[in-house]
């Protein structure tokens, strides 16, 4: 797929992987739109990258997703790429009845439902375009050993299903599965006793644009490759290892 002259919407684009991808796509000669929940943060990003288009949107809310879609196709009728990047991470203890499951933000709505709904909104529009289009889902290396990332595992499965359904169309479905990345999300996880580690978000962005260029529909970045391989060879061992890491 071409990696220039696209019009791209990136959810959760005001920081972390989303912002790194926005910067990379801009440098490659694309028109980029980002959305995020905080208007103040988006304003800061616009100062850094004036060529960016921004929109306040909480993708965990159905009505706001629909408003975002209507605005995007109205203002940018040639939009041809959706990057489902917005995500949060919560630890839910089902041994206690999971009272925190619906407290604060919903991980299921943000990580999974939003990505599926956004794809459903944009794909009919993409099918009318005369150029190649793409849905890019940002998952995780832990999607292959879903100790904490069940929503990302579900998004991985959805990506495969969607890719199969759209195989004979102009819409390509990419999945980018990074390892732990040094972002705000990682810092929150670190506060929950995870050790200091992670690759720069820019490395994920470079891997993503390379995957698009080479039509690599499932791009597993860095150490995430070993997680997928080990999940097939010795899943029990890796679950024990990751439990030890999580315990600090």
Automatic annotation (TrEMBL):
SUPFAM superfamilies: NAD(P)-binding Rossmann-fold domains (SSF51735). It comes from the Bacteria. Pfam families: adh_short. Keywords: Oxidoreductase. Its EC number is 1.-.-.-. One of its GO terms (cellular component) is membrane. PROSITE patterns: ADH_SHORT. GO terms for molecular function: oxidoreductase activity. Belongs to the short-chain dehydrogenases/reductases (SDR) family. This is Short-chain dehydrogenase/reductase SDR.
